[in-house]
Write a structure and sequence with these properties.
Elements lengths: L7 H49 L5 H21 L2 H9 L5 H19 L4 H7 L9 H25 L5 H17 L6 H34 L4 H28 L8 H26 L7 H44 L10 H18 L1 H10 L5 H21 L5 H30 L8 H6 L5 H33 L1
Helix pairs in contact: 1-2, 1-12, 2-6, 2-11, 2-12, 3-4, 3-11, 3-13, 3-14, 4-11, 4-12, 5-11, 6-7, 6-11, 6-17, 7-11, 7-17, 8-9, 8-14, 8-15, 9-10, 9-11, 9-14, 11-12, 11-14, 14-15
């Protein structure tokens, strides 16, 4: 190498070239980052198929089961990406949990719920929507379940991409219905069941919103607007935590533990009442100690609701895992049973490896794709603090208990999101009410222009309309997509 190569101008050129390479590496890394999630998800889907081949064994139907396991894994990923946001969004939006902490807690409790108490509603998903005997043969039944799995997963994937939290239960129900109609006509569908599901579009969010707004009104009237907020909190926060504990105890006894023990609504309410009283008494000295030294202002009250909110989010995740894992593994379990025995009309039993796919898929989906919907539910619909988020979590548990007692069909997704809307609309009403009261007390107070009041709305109307539209079209959209996929599968297999 000559001396000329080390002249300053050559070194400057070399530095520029190295800088370009460095920038190129950064750009490549940035461009590749969005592909990491889908890449890991694809690997999980492939591993689910390999696990199915290993556990199912070598038969003439092995390939069908492998494909079904891949579809089931894909659906479980989408449940984690979309549905779990409803449990964790309020806690994250209220800054009671970081995004990482929320994902870790949800992954653990969703998996525990799915593996310990999941699978009770699998037969409803696989058999309660269509009459299996109308399918004629096990082969047609398997095709219908495959179409239902893939269509519901695709629809939830699309909703997650758009940023709309939809009911994964309604998605898979629509998928099963569409495939059933394509396979055996409209007579194959249990229209009574579908009528109840349609009713839940209205019942779930309205009940959730009303209950959440009612608790927020109670907290504001009894604590926030009191002259001595800390003294009022010492009295009422233990009561509210006791109500939450009782509601969740009854909720988990009724909905989350059916696989372990059968409990009717009366016994669940007795269990909830006993747990609620015990927690209320235990929280009185705890809240008194926690409130020592706090200033008499609203910011101090948020501290007292932080831990109960985190606990409620964890319990909601457990119950969600116990119930909604069936959306991923219900059709898959039915396919495995029909492929093994040829019997597609009997009650569905769930192999443990199938539950593993559902549980792990929900956790992976939450970890890889969940933050987008968590942020949307937690902060983009309306601003949440620990008190408001606590009302949403409490509403979810109480509404399910009330609906079960009344025999009303409800969706946990719609309840939670309805609770967020209820809190937001109550805040709008309460703010307007206080402004009117201030104008009466102080006549000379400057009025706010109508346009400015509209700009200050506390619920984003664009998100509200997007979510409502997604809810309404979920069942028909999933059904139409499922019918098309069924015809494609039948055309390929024929």
């Amino acid at each position: 190498m000559t001396k000329k190569n080390f002249e300053p101008r050559h070194l400057e050129t070399l530095d520029r070239d190295l800088g370009r390479f460095s920038n190129l590496e950064k750009a490549t890394s940035y461009a590749a980052r969005p592909m990491v999630g889908p890449g890991i998800a694809f690997i999980f889907v492939v591993l689910a198929g390999l696990a199915a081949a290993l556990f199912f064994g070598q038969t003439s139907n092995t390939m069908i089961v492998v494909i079904a396991a891949g579809f089931g894994a894909y659906m479980a990923l989408n449940i984690g990406a979309n549905d779990v946001a409803n449990n964790m969004g309020p806690a994250v939006g209220a800054n009671a949990l970081t995004m990482g902490g929320a994902i870790a807690i949800a992954a653990i409790f969703e998996s525990m719920g799915a593996l310990l108490a999941g699978g009770d509603v699998v037969s409803t998903i696989a058999k309660g929507i269509i009459a299996p005997e109308s399918m004629g043969t096990a082969e047609v039944f398997i095709w219908a379940m495959l179409a239902a799995l893939l269509s519901s997963a695709l629809w939830v994937n699309l909703a997650t991409w758009v940023g709309a939290p939809v009911s994964t239960t309604h998605s898979v129900v629509g998928g099963v219905m569409g495939a059933g109609i394509a396979a055996a006509g409209f007579g194959a569908v249990s229209w009574g069941t579908m009528g109840k599901i349609a009713a839940s579009w209205v019942i779930s969010p309205v009940l959730g919103g009303v209950v959440a707004a009612g608790f927020l009104w109670f907290i504001k009237a009894r604590i926030v607007y009191q002259p001595d907020k800390i003294a009022a909190a010492r009295k009422w926060v233990p009561v509210l935590v006791g109500i939450m504990a009782g509601a969740f105890a009854a909720y988990l006894a009724l909905k989350g533990l059916k696989k372990i023990i059968k409990i009717d609504i009366q016994m669940a309410l007795i269990i909830g009442f006993a747990v609620g009283i015990g927690i209320w008494l235990a929280m009185i000295p705890f809240i008194r100690r926690q409130s020592e030294g706090l200033e008499n202002r609203n910011k101090s009250l948020k501290v007292l609701f932080g831990i109960p909110l985190v606990v409620s989010a964890a319990l909601l995740s457990f119950a969600h895992g116990a119930n909604d894992v069936a959306n991923a593994v219900g059709p898959l379990a039915a396919i495995v049973q029909a492929s093994q025995s040829g019997d597609f009309t009997a009650a569905v039993s769930i192999p443990f490896w199938v539950m593993i796919i559902g549980a792990f898929g929900i956790s992976f989906g939450l970890f890889l794709f969940g933050p987008k919907l968590i942020r949307m539910v937690g902060s983009q619909i309306t601003k949440l603090n620990p008190m408001r988020a606590y009302c949403v979590a409490l509403s979810a548990a109480i509404t399910v208990i009330v609906a079960s007692w009344l025999g009303l069909p409800v969706s946990s997704t719609h309840i939670a999101v309805g609770g967020v809307f209820g809190v937001g609309f109550f805040r709008e009403w309460d703010t307007e009410r206080r402004l009117k009261k201030a104008r009466v007390e102080i006549p000379d107070r400057p009025t706010i222009a109508k346009e400015e009041r509209r700009r200050r709305k506390l619920v984003r109307r664009s998100h509200f309309l997007t979510i409502i539209a997604a809810w309404v079209i979920t069942v028909p959209a999933a059904a139409l997509l499922s019918a098309v996929i069924f015809w494609v599968i039948r055309g390929i297999a024929a």
